[in-house]
Write a structure and sequence with these properties.
The chain is of the alpha+beta class. The protein has a six-stranded mixed beta sheet with strand order 3-2-1-5-6-4, with no helix packed on it. The protein contains six helices and six strands, in the order H-H-H-H-E-E-E-H-E-E-E-H. Helix 2 runs antiparallel to helix 3.
Length: 227
């Protein structure tokens, strides 16, 4: 059963020493890392569903982690973020300056889908196109994007893309997969920030389905590992 951040503080942090709180912070970060690895494993979708799900546990553990950092500051100590945390925060800080996102997904036998979102001062402009395909595929309506600019950017914030690996592949888990599904995500900024690039082959970030939802993609494209 998950509890509130304040409940977590009362049960696990209240009255603890600085050393103990720092240890709790390390444990929470390791827990998030473990849960992500679990969800990114090629066989995750075939495992029995357990409640609360790993996705919910990551969400709650993030809140516990922030409360633990706050507890450290409340006792007059300092918290030095890691390089990975600084990288993630930089991505979050730059979200309001995103001007273009290009998402590509597909494979040799089924063709590729290309989704582009361009953002100006007030609106987002959405376009989808596809390469020659060997099976039918219904693209979303490119003239009617269902989210406002603010909703879309908030959706990106919830993905914590700055925590993603630059690349994803099944070899990380000891699997070798040929062909299958490849994908890439490219992000450009209006403030001179360095463009971001992520890609994968038959392997995906733990919250990849939520990224697809932002682009209006349904599960017509199979993102499961193919033997």
């Amino acid at each position: 059963m998950m509890i509130s951040p304040e409940g977590y503080y009362e049960m696990n942090l209240k009255g603890k020493s600085e050393k103990e709180i720092r240890s709790a912070i390390r444990g929470l970060k390791n827990e998030i890392r473990h849960l992500k690895n679990t969800m990114e494993h090629p066989e995750y979708s075939s495992a029995p569903l357990i409640h609360p799900t790993e996705d919910v546990r990551i969400w709650c553990t993030r809140m516990y982690l922030e409360r633990a950092k706050q507890a450290l500051l409340e006792m007059g100590a300092t918290y030095a973020p890691s390089q990975a945390e600084l990288k993630s925060q930089q991505f979050q800080d730059n979200i309001d300056y995103i001007k273009k996102i290009r998402f590509e997904i597909g494979g040799y036998f089924g063709g590729y889908e290309f989704y582009t979102i361009t953002i100006d001062d007030e609106h987002i402009h959405y376009d989808a196109e596809h390469s020659l395909m060997l099976k039918p595929f219904n693209l979303p309506d490119t003239t009617d994007y269902p989210m406002s600019k603010a909703e879309f950017l908030d959706g990106l914030r919830e993905l914590y893309i700055g925590e993603w690996r630059p690349s994803y592949n099944t070899e990380r888990f000891g699997y070798m997969v040929l062909d299958g599904t490849q994908w890439s995500l490219d992000i450009e900024y209006s403030n001179g920030g360095k463009p971001a690039h992520y890609y994968g082959s038959n392997s995906y970030p733990y919250n990849f389905d939520k990224l697809k939802e932002l682009f209006g993609i349904e599960d017509d494209i199979d993102c499961e590992t193919e033997e």
